User: Fold this.
Amino acid sequence: MIRFLWIIAGLVASTQALHAQVPGLEDLIPTGDTVLSGRMIQLIALLTVLSVAPGILIMVTSFTRFVVALSFLRTGMGLQSTPANLVMISLALFMTFHVMAPTFEKSWDEGVQPMIDKTISEKEAFKRIVDPFREFMLQHVRDKDLMLFDELANRSKSPDQTGNQADQEKPEKAEVELRVLVPAFMISELRRGFEIGFLIVLPFLVIDLIVATMTMSMGMMMLPPTVISLPFKILFFILIDGWNLLVGGLVRSFF
Assistant:
């Protein structure tokens, strides 16, 4: 029993000694250390950007147009799960990397690399990183969509600022804010994606109409026309080398 009490006393003493050796929070982050606090803020900002990176990729690149057009292709052919979503998304991603490669390289060379080398500040680096994407979006955004979001943005400003811009019919593209440019670019890409999707679905719709007319004339009322038209649509897509035409046309639409 006495030996057991001595063991407990030794454990308590060692615990107190370890507790005394644990540094406090004020020792890890000294008061008034603005450099360390700034690094913590930068780390939090970096983690936030990484968490929304997929959304940023969709918003400011050509991914939207590609994935919408590929979705229309699968719907027009009547294939619900072939190709799989993973295949479609992966194809759209690699097509996006191909189209955006010059933009990515310019953003890295002019913004990220100098910031890593500590030759420019974070503020200047952010501007240089964003400028290539801004230039890309300005090349493909519709003026009508840009004017729409510029008008919506001006409503949140003071009456004096709104009155000063009342005579301006179209915003200057070099001075467009990202909160105006990004949504305008997205709806422009959605519109072009739907336009391309209509052209993709149209020939498959013609095949469906022909097959439906033939089955109705033959009295096969209970047979779904899509069951017969599906092999013909797949054969038609293969004969015209559809993947080559579609992917080539989508990529060339940005050049």
